[in-house]
Amino acid sequence: MSQPTKLNGIIQFLERYFAPIAAKVEKQRYISSIKNGMIGLMAVLMIGSFSLIIMAIGNMFPEGSSIRIFFDQNHDLINLPFQFTFGLLSIYAAISIAYNHARQLKIPFLHSIIGATIATLIFNVKIVKGALDTSFLDSKGLFIAIIVSLLTVELMAFFIKRKITIRFKGLPDGIAQTFEALIPLFTVLLASVLINGLVLGLTGGKNLPEAFTHFLAPTFDSIDTPYAIWLISFLEMLFWFIGLNGYAILVGFVLPFMTKYLGENAAAFAARQPIPHVFAPNFWDYFLGCTGSGVTGAIVILALFSKSKELRTIGKASSVPAIFTISEPVVFGLPIVYNPYLFIPFVFGTPTLGVLTYYVFKFGWVRAPIANVGGIPVPIAQYLSTMDWRAIILTIAIIAAGVLMYYPFFKMYERSLLAKAKEKDQRQRDFDQLDLDF
Amino acid sequence: MKITFQRLHILLVCNLGASTGVMVTKMKEIVKQSEKLKPIDIEIKAYPAGELEEHIQNFDVILVGPQIKHQFAQLSEIAKRYNKPIEVIDTQDYGMVNGGNILKSAILLKLHAEGQ
Question: Which parts of the chain span the membrane according to its record (chain B) (predicted)?
Answer without folding.
Answer: none
